[in-house]
Amino acid sequence: MTRLTVVTGDLTAQAVDAVVNAANEGLRRGGGVCGAIFAAAGPDLDAACAALAPCPTGDARVTPGFGLPARFIVHAVGPVWQGGTADEPALLAGAYHRAIEVAVGVGARSVAFPAISTGIFGYPLDDATEVAVATVRAAAGSLDEVRFVCFDAGTRAIYDRVLAR
Predict the structure, then answer these.
(1) pLDDT per position as a tens digit, 65-114
(2) pTM score, two decimals?
(3) Which domains does the chain have, with CATH numbers?
(4) Which of 116, 127, 120, 115 shows the shortest CA–CA distance to 155?
């Protein structure tokens, strides 16, 4: 059975097989989580992502971890929030599901996720957390651990509450 955990911390410092990047469709260096991952992984990540782009919303691609403790970076593209009328829950669930599939496909047994789409993509955190936890619970099958890495205590409190159900 997959162990689901929540931590507050730096996603780029997680000692797991794969970390998930909250990526954009062009797989380009961005801000927030994406920018932090690119900065920590080093310049080789730019070229590796360019070779895999584009990646449609709800899908994922994988690169080496380069300078990260993780062996792999799974680049999952979540939706930009448009008020909930543009199939956002299904697209977000797809991003989590595909991230797990891609990670398992390269042999990962442990994966660390950020709160995909909740930063500059504007997805409401409470709603996104419900989608994330439900999708991971349904899809994590062969993984030993899925770790939700929260940037701050407020985000962690929401993940803790949803996971406790």
Answers:
(1) 999 999 999 999 999 999 999 999 999 999 999 999 999 999 999 999 99
(2) 0.97
(3) 3-164 (3.40.220.10)
(4) 115
* Residue 5 phi, psi dihedral angles, 5° rounding: -130, 160
The residue written with tokens 């419900």 in the block is 130
Asked if 12 and 36 touch (Cβ cutoff 8 Å), the reply is: yes
Question: 4 with 140: CB under 8 angstroms?
Answer: yes
The three state secondary structure string of the chain is CCEEEEEECCHHHCCCCEEEEEECCCCCCCCHHHHHHHHHHCCHHHHHHHHHCCCCCCCEEEEECCCCCCCEEEEEECCCCCCCCCCHHHHHHHHHHHHHHHHHHCCCCEEEECCCCCCCCCCCHHHHHHHHHHHHHHHCCCCCEEEEEECCHHHHHHHHHHHHC
Tens-digit pLDDT profile for residues 143-164? 999 999 999 999 999 999 999 9
- Contact yes or no for 65/41 (Cβ under 8 A): yes
What is the CB-side half-sphere exposure of residue 40 using CA atoms within 13 A?
Answer: 21
Give how far the C-alpha of residue 93 lies from the chain's centroid of Cα atoms, to the nearest Å. Answer: 11
